[in-house]
Amino acid sequence: MSESSASALPPGRPGRQPFSHPENLSLDSSCFSSPPVNFLQELPSYRSIARKRTTIPTREKQSGTLLKPTDSYSSQLEGGITENLNSQSIRKYALNISEKRRLRNIQETQMKYLSEWDQWKRYSSKSWKRFIGKAREMTTHLELWRDDIRSIEGKFGTGIQSYFSFLRFLVLLNLVIFLIIFMLVLLPVLLTKYNITNSTFVLIPSKDTDVQCTVYPISSSGLIYFYSYIIDLLSGTGFLEETCLFYGHYTIDGVKFQNFTYDLPLAYLLSTIAYLALSLLWIVKRSVEGFKINLIRSEEHFQSYCNKIFAGWDFCITNRSMADLKHSSLRYELRADLEEERIRQKIAERTSEETIRIYSLRLFLNCIVLAVLAACFYAIYRATIFSQEHMKKEIDKMVFGENLLILYLPSIVITLANFITPMIFAKIIHYEDYSPGFEIRLTILRCVFMRLATICVLVFTLGSKITSCDNYSCELCGYNQKLYPCWETQVGQEMYKLMIFDLIIILAVTLFVDFPRKLLVTYCSSWKLVQCWGQQEFAIPDNVLGIVYGQTICWIGAFFSPLLPAIATLKLIIIFYVKEISLLYTCRPSPRQFRASNSNFFFLLVLLIGLCLAIIPLTISMARVPSSKACGPFTNFNTTWEVVPKTVSTFPRSLQSLVHGITSEAFAVPFFMIICLIMFYFIALAGAHKRVVVQLREQLSLESRDKRYLIQKLTEAQRDMKNRLDWQ
Length: 728
What we know:
- The chain is mainly alpha-helical.
- The protein has helices at residues 3-7, 22-32, 36-40, 44-54, 73-83, 97-112, 116-140, 146-156, 158-193, 228-235, 264-298, 304-311, 320-348, 352-390, 400-407, 409-429, 436-466, 487-523, 528-533, 540-557, 564-585, 596-623, 643-649, 653-662, 665-727, and strands at 200-202, 254-256, 261-263, 537-538, 588-589.
């Protein structure tokens, strides 16, 4: 302590004198005034780097022997921030308020030395960012079901909230799909039909087609029973078959306006391609964030327990019962992790005889799973064949129930298969000796394949019936014109029936199963049967598979029934309110909860699988199956895709050469090679980023060891100092 500072002490209060003794000064010099490099070279991080560098003898020595441990992270961060002040916002940096204010002053000082043009660009950029932020803040108040979803998030956590957010996303997706089809297909037809604009229909020109192929018998208008309209409404036949709901209504070649002619066949095809491409891009864009989070978490095997204990709590929960449920969920996850660790240890200790036995058992059980799937697919095939062969009977020859059963027989069989097979899969998986997490994923994967494959089986069964003839040749029309004069409309009717029946089943289960079950659990809880049955769980995977199943139906059926996306939008809105009421009053959340990030990525992955399965039958029907000659805008084309070459032939010569060049093999092969090179580049870049992440994790680990080492040395120094003072 200096003399001036010592004289500044108040009188009567002696100053502390330990630093005035020469012994203490020697202690301080020995502990803290020694060369810092010698002391810092004892850090664990420095020793680790030294060991790594000594293992590479061919590397030349750098200027300054090794990486200096005195280069602190904060100084590097500050240097990086000051360099990027011109392009980055200070809000993005994790600094305290005083540091941000200091950086703000530096930024304002730098602004004074810029030109007027640069200052204007800087101010305009800030104003634009501020405007975008305010606009985004205002649009959040316009979100559909914003308050409802936030209330669900507060009561039941982010896992169930992610299901309702996913449902809202599908509502918006179907609404956009409907708007695309409405603007490209339906709007020109309605404007001309009701004389809103000065336009006329362009009829399809006659072609050398056999008259027998152009026959499209309309339903007989004889005696109409009172229930006929109900059957028509539920099945899409009768009066609905002639409306704009189905493909057969658009039997025109175009709409002629004053200055141009609107090509309806091309617009019809482009609308299908547009909504499929939009769905693909939208799903991929939303799934990227969840994929990144899952990719990062997949690397954190050693931090699994720490993540669950220190970062596993959902702070959005405000309900006491949901808090208890979250506690039990975390306990379940820890038990599941311990069980998986036990199974991994058990696998490592297996003998060769046990390994052969378990793999033989799994092979046998997977054969049973395949047999169950094959039986379901065959039942759907037979039900579809039976329904298609008997649905052409006159209505007056069968009673109301029989007629409705024949029409809905494929839908009933598909629903029963989707209801029974998950229970069978859940029983089989217990004998396969998998870890709990893998059991859930494998069961969900089997259920996804079952639900989505049933739709494909139905579509391909219809396709086989359309393109095959029993007693006469199909060479005349290219398809079974006798049974399917307008096969596109009839496929659309099947998709329409699946959509309506799925909604009926959801409403019926909620009203006649969940609500009575809740009443029994509430008022008859002493009964042993009711105790075994228990309250209905709100299982997120099952509900997600249900709406993905409906969305796949919508993607396939939108080509054959242009208004099906509008029906799907209304259906999803009804499902939202039904599921919300069911969650609040009749169901309890499942003890196996999903994280929001994992849930969103899983939902979108299943939805992407459904989209891929929907594209396959649509592509085959548009490119390979002959189009109907009695209805629709493609009556003069052998297939739907032939409208594209015809349109290209109307282009100028240079543009035709460009299109033909792009679609030729001479362009496709180099393009494919370039895409492969770009893909390999990004794979290599991802590998480099992965190595950087590993190095950063090692650096974080070394920094924690450095801190622990420094604290230990500081504690020892303080202890030595205290001991010397006590001796004195």
